[in-house]
Design a protein that fits this description.
Blueprint: E1 11-14, E2 20-23, H1 28-38, H2 48-63, E3 64-68, H3 82-89, H4 92-113
Antiparallel strand pairs: 1-2, 2-3
């Protein structure tokens, strides 16, 4: 079953390390904008981890609206900026929290809607019901030219 998120308001997420992020919902429009942002980024097609890393960073730049618990070296609160978001996501626990609470649920919903019917034996996509009527007779063989 596809689970829709009806409330599409920004929400606060707790990263578990004293930082809270105010995050806009991840939507198809955001994903399309991020695809545009990533055009021209050179990543080896086989480097799945690097692709995921770049996707998460680009999504964070588009969806993190505000934060609490983020400051400079002197402990003064800092404003949200793309460079600040990148620096914040360089902290592994923050990256993991954002990925788990924002990106993974979106990708899960996308995977739910992009699947084929399961095969009864579990090895591949199943065939749908036959809906075409059988042919009445074979077509004649073509004559050589």
């Amino acid at each position: 079953m596809l689970h829709l998120r009806i409330n599409r308001q920004p929400e606060w997420i707790d990263t578990g390390v004293g930082v809270r992020l105010h995050v806009a919902p991840l939507t198809s429009a955001v994903m399309l904008a991020v695809k545009s942002d990533l055009r021209g980024t050179e990543i080896d097609a086989g480097d799945i981890d690097r692709m995921h890393y770049e996707l998460v960073r680009a999504l964070a730049r588009r969806t993190i609206l505000d934060w609490e618990g983020v400051g400079d070296e002197g402990g003064n609160p800092v404003a949200v900026t793309p460079a600040g978001i990148d620096a914040l996501l360089d902290l592994h626990r923050i990256f993991d929290a954002y990925d788990a609470r924002v990106v993974s649920p979106y990708l899960l919903v996308q995977s739910e809607k992009n699947v084929s019917a399961p095969s009864p034996n579990g090895i591949s996509a199943g065939a749908g019901p036959t809906i075409a009527t059988p042919a009445r007779a074979s077509a004649p063989t073509a004559r050589p030219a």
